[in-house]
Amino acid sequence: MHVMVVEDDKMMAAALAKGIREDGYHVTTCGTAADALKPVEGDPVDLFLLDIGLPDRSGLEVLQVLRSRNCLTPVIILTARDAVRDRVKGLDAGADDYLVKPFSLAELLARIRARLRRPEAPNASILRVDELAIDVLNRRVMRGTSEIILTGQEFELLRYLALNVGKTVSREMIARDVWHIESRATPLDNVIDVHISHLRAKVDRGFDKELIRTVWGVGFALKGSE
Amino acid sequence: MKTPLRLRMFFWLVALLVLFVGLQFAIFSVIEFRSWLHRPEGPLREHLMEAVTGVGWDLAMLPLLIWVAWWISRWMIQPVRTITLAADTICAGHFDERISTGDMPDDEMRRMASTINAAFDYYHDAVERLRRFSGDASHQLRTPLAAMQSVGEVALSRDRQPEEYRQALADMLGEVRRMARVTEQLLRLARLERTEVRASFVRIDLGQVARRTAEMYQPLCEEKRVKLRLETEAGLQVLGHEDLLVEMVANLLDNALRVTPNGGVILLKVEQESGGGALVTVADTGPGIAPELAGRVFELFGQVPGTRQTGAGLGLAIVAAIAKAHGGQVELSTRHARGAVFQARLPLMPPGT
Fold first, then answer.
1. Are residues A161 and A94 in the same domain?
2. What pTM value is reported for the model?
């Protein structure tokens, strides 16, 4: 899978490229609109990460040119502007997703995965991570042979971690996807941390293997055997 | 028509004078003519000459009258000159000056002066707030920056174990989060000032908002051994934005949790006021806030006394801004002896389908 990062800030571009590459993608970077629109030799681009504020032309124009060429490659816009107006403009121009700076790498990788996800058995009714089984339909959780009783919110949180199994999810992602709170100004960090610690107490206590991990400075991950 | 105001007034006065003299002459002539018709003694010409001498005096007085008119016009525009002068002084940088309206009669000019003064008050206030805001905001951003710099410099100052680097990077990311949060809050405040925010308003059940927020905060309260009591009246609906209202209640709960000691109680109550509005109350059993500080807690970067300095001091400013955007207001009730009681009043929507 080939991801093209169009971002003029060199440090940002290098960091993104490194992070995405380490998640298993082929990454190329470029810093101008002109370069982004050049025909790509070899491996065709499967996804664009497009910064809006490019030095030569706006990222939105790049997007419009791409779409006018009937190029349907998914595009995720990266921008520091997040007024609803800007968001609508970006999506109107044909963007598939819109990520506001600053964002966590975990979040970016999740969005990339969502865009490039191969059709696989979706909505499995039972999510399995090691000996943990999450029955989504009946909202029951088993670890090995013992049942774990969770509150509604804990269940949603665990389900979300299981859907992103092996991947780190940030607190912002949890706030948005589990609690449906879009505003990053809402004070939820402590709330999320305490839910995680309750969940961890129920899921991992008494077992040798720790499934719910804290990823320092980033967020949390549900991980089975590597 | 580029004639100055004072000249225009002067011309009008002179024109009135000339008209007056002309009218006088016409009336005198008619009177003389009629008396001549009645008793035709001597030639008509002599009679008319008397009318001419009658207005002759007027004409002799005319220069004096014109001079008076010139001064009257000056007197009439005097308030305008005063206002201009004062406004010039203010514009020159004396922002505390105001147009003195004390000796003006209660007329259009005084009202104009008051309006201009009010405009100056408004802008002076806005400039002051902006000045304070940029100072405070830079300070708020400088604190995490300083922390990041120290952590980074110390980490790189000599060779260390991987674990130490990891810790340093995690600490720096923590500071980044803090900065990101302050930035989000400042943006949120800036947006709430605009009226566009109301475009997305729909009918929202306040009880639902309170339940949803309380459910999120419940485990955190338990962790701190604080009892969260929720009392909601059913069917109270406002025109608003659910996320914003949740954010308002979340900030109030977050604030209450910071000041409430272990074993304390936080009350979250949604009820209908006797006045007809909706009342959202968040009361805690913390140390409370002194009445003289009550007005300042909603200010930007105003810290609630007694809290650990964990927040940037924007939470309650956001609460106030959200209440205001919903056509309501929030206040810190000081009637209560113990703990702080925050109350947001929001206009209710009539129950409908």
1. no
2. 0.73
